[in-house]
Specification:
The protein has 20 helices and 22 strands. The protein is α+β, with helices and mostly antiparallel strands. The longest helix has 24 residues.
Length: 637
């Protein structure tokens, strides 16, 4: 290769100089992406010559294998990227390398200048033809030689990134572009192997990470470990992405192996969603529903997101802007040429295309879950056990999720030991039932022992059992399902049907007649309960605690207290069963010894019993135990 005319020295375009300064000194934190950018540019050049050769075969110059070559030279501290693509003419080098494409670059530079505090967090390269400049993040000097396909003259370009470059015509035997990066010392002898960009292993790992699915082979000569053996030319990339193949050509084993290798999961995926869409937006998606939740899935440390590719080139590891947060358990990737990138292959703008892809993928995942629920119930319930809390949390967190997720919810119930959907609950409802009843507790045994269930259970009505901390919040968010309101057995008054309205009137009458007694009990329980009344929901138990219809429930109060939000308090209403013998004892005590210590002790015992039935420890367990002991002694005398 020889020079054929005088060398010219030129200045970069003003915006280019600004961008170079930002790139070298402030913008980038992840400098390894320079290799991805240069390989992507090489792939683009190969695409162009392949396309042009369809109508002009002579452009290939009898060199039909399109490929990219990498060369590492430790003596010269250089890394070279070579392609036999379309190449560039003298004018094209000045246009493409000496200046930056004008679409938005100036605005971008101005934005960075306006927000210097954010510059260090940005990794901006790519779409405007500036991917080439990423080389200066790691280079002391960059030399580019190129010859356009069909041209007889090559070009040599050189710069240290100081604002100037030299350019000259150059004799180059083959078409294509060769970029030699003379690396800064820190990227040759770094103690961290991952930052030594002359190391063959490091280079091969970066190619695997970012450019594994470029359609052309990326080749590199690896030195032999033995003196008497020649070096070996290896292909570093797999070239053919699994997701670009037709579904009928991919075996179940290939899908599973890809999942395990790519997402580092020992378990088989529960479901696979492979779709290709063309139209307003073009993309291919390969999504997996895991079988087991990651150990940190329900912690703040968990990072959801899909891998992003654009034309088979890796863009981002975990993009959280496509699927909604509640589908954070989905693993997979999306490949689209329509991603709207700003000057980076890593940072996505919130574009219409991105939102459209996200909505389509959300529908695909929900449709898959619907099929599981309706056709493979056991499999869906296994999924629900792992990820159901994410769906429930989404209903509670965002009102707009209510309609689309309510049919996917599963609950325990009094009907059987099997889980039920809300639709199944409604299908079993008797005609005279007007509300969907539910009760809250830590487990089935606890809920089924609640005295508040007695009347509802006697009527033969099914009751949803809420065991999860978030369940009652979800029910409160839903409020109703298909025009049937949700009704807690422990909140507000319980009116089941006409005959119970009569019972309710009778209860009101009894409350009025026993008002002095009820006021006396409330006085003994000052600041513990807001009201003491007779109950129409109790059948065999002497007492229970309920809360008002509005406001939070007692169970909710406990959950919020665990979350250190103790400023939220439920109203506590003590309900007594007028048919229970204990009530008769209280009546006699109040009539004969209204100021006795025994009356006060009985009131506190009943309140403590009501707390225990709710799964709440008495405020003073030792005093409560002492009262029980005294009661036993007095009863024996």
């Amino acid at each position: 290769m020889t020079t054929t005319n005088l060398k010219e020295t030129k200045e970069f375009q003003a915006e280019t100089k600004q961008l170079l300064d930002l790139m070298i000194h402030s913008i980038y934190t992840n400098r390894e992406i320079f290799l991805r950018e240069l390989l992507s540019n090489a792939s683009d050049a190969l695409d162009k010559v392949r396309f042009e050769s369809l109508t002009n075969q002579a452009l290939l110059e009898n060199e039909n294998e399109l490929a990219i070559y990498l060369e590492s030279n430790e003596v010269e501290r250089s890394l070279t990227i070579i392609d036999n693509g379309i190449g560039m003419t003298y004018d094209e080098v000045i246009s493409n390398i000496g200046t930056i494409a004008k679409s938005g670059t100036k605005a971008f530079v101005e934005k960075i200048k306006e927000q210097p505090a954010q510059a260090a967090d940005l990794e901006l390269i790519g779409q405007f033809g500036v991917g080439f400049y990423s080389a200066f993040m790691v280079a002391e000097k960059v030399v580019l030689t190129t010859r356009a396909a069909g041209s007889s003259v090559g070009v040599r370009w050189e710069s240290t990134g100081d604002g100037n470059f030299t350019i000259e015509e150059f004799t180059k035997e083959k078409r294509g572009t060769c970029i030699t990066i003379y690396l800064k010392e820190e990227f040759c002898n770094s103690e961290k192997q991952s930052e030594n960009f002359l190391n063959h292993y490091t280079i091969s790992q970066l190619v695997k990470k970012y450019s594994d699915y470029i359609r052309y082979p990326i080749k590199m000569q690896f030195p032999s470990t033995k003196e008497d053996e020649p070096s070996e030319l290896k292909i570093l990339n797999s070239q053919k992405p699994l997701w670009t193949r037709a579904k009928q050509e991919i075996t179940s084993e290939e899908y599973r192996e890809f999942y395990k290798n790519t997402f580092h999961d020992w378990e088989e995926p529960a479901e696979i969603i492979h779709s290709k869409v063309e139209g307003l937006v073009e993309y291919t998606a390969l999504l997996y529903l895991p079988t087991k939740a990651p150990f940190d899935f329900y912690t703040r440390d968990f990072q959801p997101g899909l891998k992003l590719y654009s034309r088979n080139v890796f863009i981002m590891e975990k993009c959280q802007d496509i699927l909604p947060e509640y589908l954070g358990f989905v693993k997979g990737l999306v490949d689209s040429p329509d991603f709207s990138l700003n000057i980076s292959r890593e940072i996505l703008q919130h574009s219409k295309q991105l939102k459209l892809i996200g909505k389509n993928l959300e529908k695909s995942v929900l449709k898959t879950l619907e099929n599981l629920l309706n056709k493979e119930r056991q499999k869906y319930e296994a999924f629900w056990a792992e990820f159901g809390r994410a769906l429930k949390g989404a209903v509670y967190a965002e009102y707009e999720n209510r309609e689309k997720l309510q049919d996917f919810l599963l609950f325990n119930s009094s009907h059987s030991d099997e889980l039920t959907t809300l639709t199944e609950y409604l299908n079993r409802m008797p005609e005279n039932q007007t509300e969907i009843y539910y009760a809250t507790g830590k487990d089935r045994a606890t809920v089924e022992s609640l005295p508040q269930l007695e009347l509802v259970r006697e009527k033969g009505y099914e009751i949803l059992y809420l065991f999860d901390r978030v369940d009652e919040f979800v029910i409160d968010t839903l409020r109703e399902y298909k025009e049937k309101k949700f009704k807690s057995v422990s909140r507000g008054e319980l009116k089941l049907q006409d005959e119970d309205l009569k019972d309710s009137k009778e209860t009101e009458k009894q409350n009025s007649e026993n008002a002095p007694l009820l006021q006396a009990i409330k006085a003994e329980l000052t600041e513990k309960v807001t009201e003491v009344r007779l109950s129409n929901r109790l059948k065999s138990s002497p007492v229970c605690l309920v809360s008002e219809e509005s406001g939070i429930s007692i169970a909710m109060e406990q959950v919020l207290a665990e979350m250190e939000r103790s400023n939220f308090k439920a109203t506590r209403i003590l309900e007594l069963n007028p048919e229970h013998p204990v009530f008769n004892v209280l009546q006699k005590l109040h009539q004969n010894q209204p100021d006795s210590s025994k009356f006060k002790e009985y009131c506190e015992l009943l309140y403590g019993q009501a707390l225990l039935l709710e799964g709440i420890s008495p405020e003073n367990p030792a005093a409560f135990a002492s009262k029980i002991a005294n009661l036993m002694v007095n009863a024996a005398q």
